[in-house]
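Project outcomes to date are best conveyed with an example. Our students and postdoctoral researchers have been running inverse folding experiments weekly, and each run begins with a structure described purely in tokens. The record below, which covers 253 residues, was selected by the lab manager from last quarter's runs and is presented without edits.
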């Protein structure tokens, strides 16, 4: 990681400041994020704070320098500069090893998404307090039940049965609704950063949330979409949807 720079009234490493700028955040946005604890970590700092994975081949913990996004005083996530391999895949984001999952919940939070950058985009660009989880499956671990939050996920969630299942379970836990970012040209995995970079406005963000779906409505909308998916994916979607429909009482026992 390069040396910290103060030339733009920031203590972020240059590449981290550049990354946030490229994600659509203004200097004022980045300054506000820094006031809430967003910061650059060296590899050694990441290791000390528990952002690490076990490297069995070399019998040691490994980590990466990265950009830290605090969720609470005791839980955070880093975006790794050089993602370590975990389970055979690069771990682009890390949370502290063995830490209990927590949510980032800004004051007045109305909607929760996956990942801190998208949450900041919803709050700063969309002017709607937007929180986040480190993973969509963390809903029951990190949130109190019956919180009425809208769960918002990336546009590719429609084609991921595991994500769709987690969204339905999460909405039941929250007694809340579900929404997905619309498909965005040029962004196959469109989250809120991409949504606002594509030119959507705060008013359109509000309208998107206003059309969020209850779990049964989401299940119906999903079923209309996966009817045209490739056969193997469609079969898995049908299996997952049937399970949730049965649990919701939409299919007779």
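After processing, the design step wrote out the following sequence:
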């Amino acid at each position: 990681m390069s040396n910290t720079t103060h030339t733009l009234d920031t203590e972020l490493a240059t590449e981290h400041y550049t990354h946030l700028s490229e994600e659509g955040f203004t200097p004022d946005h980045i300054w506000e994020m820094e006031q809430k604890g967003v910061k650059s970590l060296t590899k050694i700092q990441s290791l000390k704070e528990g952002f690490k994975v076990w490297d069995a081949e070399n019998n040691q913990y490994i980590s990466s320098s990265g950009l830290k996004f605090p969720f609470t005083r005791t839980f955070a996530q880093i975006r790794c500069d050089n993602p370590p391999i975990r389970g055979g895949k690069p771990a682009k984001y890390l949370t502290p090893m063995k830490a209990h999952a927590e949510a980032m919940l800004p004051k007045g939070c109305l909607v929760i998404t996956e990942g801190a950058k998208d949450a900041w985009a919803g709050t700063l660009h969309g002017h709607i307090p937007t929180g986040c989880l480190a993973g969509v499956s963390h809903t029951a671990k990190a949130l109190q039940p019956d919180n009425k939050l809208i769960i918002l996920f990336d546009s590719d969630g429609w084609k991921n049965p595991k994500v769709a299942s987690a969204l339905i379970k999460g909405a039941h836990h929250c007694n809340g609704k579900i929404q997905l970012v619309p498909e965005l040209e040029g962004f196959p995995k469109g989250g809120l950063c991409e949504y606002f970079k594509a030119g959507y406005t705060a008013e359109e963000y509000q309208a998107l949330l206003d059309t969020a779906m209850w779990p049964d409505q989401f299940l119906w909308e999903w079923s209309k979409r996966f009817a045209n998916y490739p056969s193997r994916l469609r079969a898995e979607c049908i299996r997952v949807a049937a399970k949730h429909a049965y649990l919701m009482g939409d299919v007779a026992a």
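Residues 1-100 form one domain. DSSP finds ten helices and twelve strands in the chain. The training component of this project remains on track.
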